[in-house]
Here is the input.
Amino acid sequence: MDDLIAALDEEVAKIPAEYLYHVAIHEAGHAAVAVLLEMSDNVTTSLIRRGQFTASTSMDTRIQAITRKVVEKRMAVALAGRAAEDAILGEVTAGAGGSEDSDIAIASDLATRAVTQWGLSASGDILYSRYTAFEQLLAYRPERVDEVHKMLNVAYTAALDLVRGHRTDVQAIADALIKKRALVHDEIVALLRGSPDQAASAP
Here is the structure.
C-alpha cells in the first residue's frame, strides 16, 4: 500500500501546481453542488484514476421521478465545475467542454431531451421528437433551442450561486483533494458544514 501511495504522489507531483489547483477547484465545484442539492448519498471525487492523473467526480444518482426541477438540478451539477472556476478563479477553462461526454455536453443533452422527448417543456407542449442532435434541433425546432439555452443559463446561475454562497467550503474541498488525492462522501459533507459565506449571502 505504501508503494501505491508513493506512486500516486509521484504521478500528481508531475502536474504543475497552478494547473492542479484549477483541476481541484473544478472537481470541488461538482462535488459541493451535488451534495448541496442532495442529488446523491455517495458523492466521491478524485484526482487519480487507475494510477493516472485523471480527475473525476462521481455519484450514485438517487432513484427519483424525472421532473423539470430534477433535470435542472442534474444540469447544475454538471455545470458546477465551470461555475467554480468562474466564481473562485475569476476565469473559466475549456475543461467543461470539448467532447461528447463533457460537462457542457451532458447538461445540453439533458435540456434537449427534457424539451423534445420527456414532455418537460416550460410551454406545456407535449412532444416527442427524434431530433436530439443540436444541429437538427436548430434546423427543425428553433424555438426549442431557445428553451435549451434558457435551461442552461438557469442551471449555470444556480450552480454559480451555490458556489459563491459556499466559496470557503469549496476551496477547502479543493485543498483537501490536493492533499489527499481523493475524497469520499462523508469527507465532502464535513467540509460543507460551514455556514454560507456572508458576503455572497448579502442582498
Q: What stands out?
A: The radius of gyration is 18 Å. Confidence is low (pLDDT under 50) at residues 1-5, 198-203.
